[in-house]
Amino acid sequence: MDTWDGRLPRAAGMRPYAVRFTARLTARHRIPLDWSVASLRVVDRLIDGLRKGGADADADAVRDTLAGLGAYVGEVLVRRAGGVWVDLDADQRAWFAQPVGVRLPDGRVWNPLGKVRNRFETGGPEESLQTFYLTLHGRARRTAA
Question: Is residue 94 domain-resident?
Fold first, then answer.
């Protein structure tokens, strides 16, 4: 089975999923998502816009957009922090309420999909995705872009 629920791919499919989502979003709207840490600030603004726009009226559209943004954030962790997408075990799925996460070099597993959902639900600065990245424990220190 390649997906968890017919929508979200397993760990092996998350990179292509994130790339497809980002290509569609940037082609239509010229949004500067370039897989950089700085682009996570753009993701914060996109989610804030969804909240202010009353996007909860179309739950499917919001769910798919948030999943795509979560995949984007996770892929930034993979590309910039040395992470790898992983399928979560049953206990982790119950804890994170997500089927996949990102394991960083120190072995810790992070939940970018859940972090995006938290940003959407609360909208507070404490849920900033850029801050999330900058305060991650266990990320690889990379200087090259």
Answer: yes
Q: SS3 for 37?
A: coil
Q: What is the pLDDT of residues 92-129, one digit of tens each?
A: 999 999 999 999 999 999 999 999 999 998 888 889 99
Question: Distance between CA atoms of 45 and 37, rounded to whole angstroms?
Answer: 14
Torsion of CA 116, 118, 120, 121, to 10 degrees: 160
- The H-assigned helical ranges of 53-142 are 59-81, 90-96, 112-122, 129-134
> What is the extent of the structural domain holding 90?
11-134
Tell me the HSE value of 54 on the side-chain side, using a 13 A CA sphere. Answer: 1
Q: Is residue 53 part of a domain?
A: yes
pTM of the full structure: 0.89
| Number of domains observed in the structure of the chain | 1
